[in-house]
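Submission sheet (multi-component)
Chains listed below:
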Amino acid sequence: GLFVWRLRSAGVRQVPCQFVHLCRIANDRLITFQYFNFLKRMYVTQYNKDLSQRAKPKPDSVVSPFHELQQLDQEKKAVHKISPVSAVHQSWCETSGRNELREMKSAAGTEDSVTAVRAESKEDRQWKEMKLRLDDLPGILARLSKIKLTALVVSTASAGFAMAPVPFELTCFLLASLGTGLASCAANSINQFFEVPFDSNMNRTKNRPLVRGQISPLLAVCFAAACGVPGVALLTLGVNPLTGALGAFNIFLYTCCYTPLKRISIANTWVGAVVGAIPPVMGWTAATGSLDAGALLLGGILYSWQFPHFNALSWGLREDYSRGGYCMMSVTHPGLCRRVALRHCLALIGLSALAPVLGITTWTFPLISLPINLYISYLGFRFYRDADRSSSRKLFFCSLWHLPLLLLVMFTCKKSVLEKEDKGDLLGESRERAMEIRLP
Amino acid sequence: PPAHSHSDWIGPPDRHSHLRPVIFHVPPGESALERRLREARQEAQACNQRFWARHNRAFRQEKEEFIYSRLKAKGLEMRDESGQKATLNAEEMADFYKDFLSKNFKKHLQYNRDWYKRNFTITFLMGQVALVRALRWLRGKKKNVEQ
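Outcome: structure written.
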């Protein structure tokens, strides 16, 4: 009963969004991308809720934790996860419902059927025993490893794998996906391990397991090792050493470069963009075993995409970044923030045009993707010119559907592997004949 | 937390620092290593609490002052007709955020270094304690088997 009520209360703002995305789902042909869009829908609606809450006028008085508006994770690189859909859906419903309730209470201050909210916040105000309960452990570990973000990372790696011009091998694909997923879990856990006091001070992140004391730091580190070591080993031994090296490097880049750099210099955004760009490269190298131009192009597309996505997002979080001591462009160099976002929107057009030149896709790809790239560039321009919350929100939400759509179009315009194989065969045959002639 | 409890207890977030305080359980047969761990955690907790409470308070105060000065420059009062507190929009506040961040940059650097050191030390001690406890448990099992 309570669960249903939570859904209903959360549903009001989200129904139109869900409907739009349901329609989009109905139009998708591929199953993998259906999952993609389903998860994106969940992601979008959660962000919609978060951002729509931010739109309320901020009370200027002394802020109690319950009054602070929800923040968005600066690390979330959009797109979603491929874990067991039902589990994710459940946890999403619960958390979004709970968060929605908390927000409603603080913002409205009214007592409209707030019994559930009261129970929830009362629970939060109680003292809790710091004892690990085994049945809570899966949920705790899921939140520790940022499982939704991990799913997103795995799906971009799968996109890289799918775009590689080689025949599809299921075992390789599964091993690569699993290895990437484990590596991502490890990296996210270490990130949370490093950021406990900062996460406590930001509203979005204050319910993380380490912040709440649901798990000890030692266990978090052990979990990270238990995911990272097998993950990288799986990639190195089960797929190929290059993919393994990229995975290990990405973990290092995220935990030891990006995380500390967030508090030191705005360069963290560029490092973070590289972190986001590596998974599709890993997917490609997993399939082909080498770092071709195609891999770099795919990485380049994701790298460029990070900027409009993150810069638009960070525009609404300036207060929390400032208070938390995070060095972000939106706070320190706002002009640069908007310029970079626009620059990279335009770069996406260029990169899409490069795809057929490198033989990854046919020429239909830049043609079909031109409207969506132009649209995001238009929003990027609006953001650059207006520099306000509404333009940043529009750009952010556009980036959420832009990437899956772009990857989907790319996949459908992929140059057929068979074409290449036929040409290869012909060459092979003629070479054989030439050899036969040469033999005495 | 109840007196008979054998574990640590964690409380709701503090109003100023937003950190959750922990009450540490002191077991009767606490070893030197375990005491070191507990003291390290208590110290880190106190240090964090001091830093964030002071920092957040400063933020709130400076924000108020900034809003007041800006409103005055615009010729407006702190409270408008309906008695609501007047606020500045995000773009106007941006100058304050940028200023605040750069003013506190060195403070944050120092705190980061301190926090990372403490975090590693505590986790390492936790590892040592866990290892010692595991060995003790194994030795106990071996004794039982022998008996």
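Remark: The beta strands of chain B are 9-10, 22-23.
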